[in-house]
Structure formats: structure tokens, C-alpha cells
Design a protein that fits this description.
This protein is mostly helical. It has 13 helices and no strands. The longest helix is centred in the middle third of the chain and has 27 residues.
Length: about 250
């Protein structure tokens, strides 16, 4: 779960590895018991560590939760920006964003549960810091959506309210996947990413046609939303998405 950092001594590496192990255990404990139900003593007991050692890394439960949330958003933002390098087509960039988020979520389900359910558990000052990091991550996706919606018309005619609605809708699908996604039942993160990406880009009508493998023939009842046309929805093209970038070892 940890990659070596240039110039980091073995002692520093061990310290960071232990800190990350505590964060991972805390995420599991908070996901199960809630922030207020988790205690530092219980966490120490569950991990077989001495309580005193926990306070070498975190001064309080609040400090631990703050580090958990900031580390997560920093890691997700860094990972998605790295994955987007060299991807130029806006539709492809949205797929890369969705896939990268789902890969993180699949590997850190407890962390995602904490991010969703414990966003308000911190005091105002620390919530503001976390919110700033969260907005930075949100803006990566929002900028992709804005680029897609602007199309040939450019930014001048962009409906910013529509950009917000679409972006929040994408995150609505992504954020709750931790609660239902089971690889044994629903396939790989790539499978889920394709489904969510197709829904985001084209709507249910396009999803039906992609499943049928027919870009021009059979259609779902009704018409594809006008948004899909503005996005240049092409079911045949959507069957060929960018291959996932080689994953870097993440500091989580």
C-alpha cells in the first residue's frame, strides 16, 4: 500500500507504512461502527497494537479521521490526473476518470464509506480543508463534462447549471457503488466503468443499443436525450474505450 519516496530513509518508510496501516484499520472500524462508535482503544485492541503507539501517529480520533479523508482525496486526485495524461478525447477522459475512481473504490471500500458518511464529523475548520480537496477532485470531472458539453459551440454558450447537474449525477453513480458492487456478481471495475460511462454519456437508450451491439438499428422506447447528440454519442465507438493505464502503487 506504500511506495518508496525518493530520499526517504528506511526509518521514515517504516513510520509511513505503520501510519498507513493504522489509517486502513481505522477506515474499517469507522465503516463498521461509525466515527463516534470507534474508539482509539478499540482500534488498538483490534490491530494488536499498544494504545501508546497510536498516539505517536495521531493525537486524537479527530486527527485520525482528518488524515484519512485528506489522504484519500489527495491520492484520488493524484491518481486520476496521472491516468488522464496523454488522453485527449473528452469522452475517453470521462471513461478514464470513472474507471480510476472505481478502481480506488474497489480496493478501498471502507475508505469510500467513510468519505460518504462521515463528511460532517470534523469541526468546521478541518471540514473546510477537506472540502477544498474534495472540490479539487470534483473539478477534474466537472472540467471534463464542461469540455464535452461545450462541443463545437465553445464555452460561451455553456449551460453551467447543466454541467453541475451532469457532474453530480456522475458522482451519484460512483459514490454509491461501494454499497452494491461485488466483483463476483458484477464483473471487474472495467465492466462497471463501461456501464456508468455509457449511462453518463448517452442515457438508457444508448445503453440498450450498446448491449444489442447495434449502433443504428434497435432502439429503446423513446429517443436518446438531446444531450447525447450534443456529446456525439456513438455506441459503436463506446465499445472501444481506452485501455486502463498501468496502475501506480498508491499511498493510501
Amino acid at each position: 500500500m506504500v511506495s518508496p519516496v525518493a530520499g526517504e530513509s528506511p526509518r521514515q518508510a517504516r513510520h509511513e507504512a505503520q501510519r498507513l496501516e493504522i489509517l486502513a484499520a481505522a477506515a474499517d472500524a469507522i465503516a463498521e461502527h461509525g466515527f463516534h462508535g470507534m474508539t482509539m482503544r478499540g482500534l488498538a485492541r483490534a490491530t494488536g497494537s499498544g494504545l501508546a503507539s497510536f498516539y505517536n501517529y495521531f493525537s486524537s480520533k479527530e486527527d485520525l479521521l482528518f488524515s484519512l479523508q485528506t489522504d484519500a482525496f489527495e491520492t484520488m486526485t493524484r491518481s486520476v490526473n496521472a491516468a488522464l495524461e496523454g488522453v485527449d478525447e473528452h469522452v475517453d477522459r470521462l471513461y478514464v476518470f470513472v474507471l480510476t475512481h472505481l478502481q480506488y473504490s474497489a480496493e478501498h471500500r471502507s475508505v469510500l464509506r467513510v468519505l460518504v458518511h462521515e463528511a460532517s464529523a470534523l469541526p468546521a475548520g478541518r471540514r473546510k480543508t477537506v472540502r477544498r480537496l474534495k472540490e479539487g477532485y470534483f473539478n477534474v470531472c466537472r472540467d471534463i463534462v464542461a469540455a464535452m458539453l461545450s462541443g463545437a459551440g465553445g464555452a460561451a454558450g455553456l449551460d453551467h447549471a447543466e454541467v453541475e447537474r451532469v457532474t453530480y449525477s456522475v458522482f451519484g453513480m460512483l459514490n454509491w457503488s461501494y454499497g452494491w458492487y461485488d466483483p463476483r456478481q458484477h464483473g471487474s471495475p472495467e465492466d462497471v466503468a463501461k456501464t456508468i460511462h455509457t449511462l453518463a454519456v448517452c442515457g438508457l437508450g444508448c445503453t440498450y443499443r450498446v448491449a444489442q451491439g447495434d449502433g443504428e438499428g434497435r432502439r429503446a422506447a423513446g429517443t436518446v436525450p438531446a444531450l447525447a447528440g450534443r456529446l456525439g454519442c456513438n455506441p459503436a465507438a463506446l465499445r472501444k474505450r481506452p485501455a486502463p493505464a498501468e496502475k501506480n502503487t498508491k499511498r493510501v
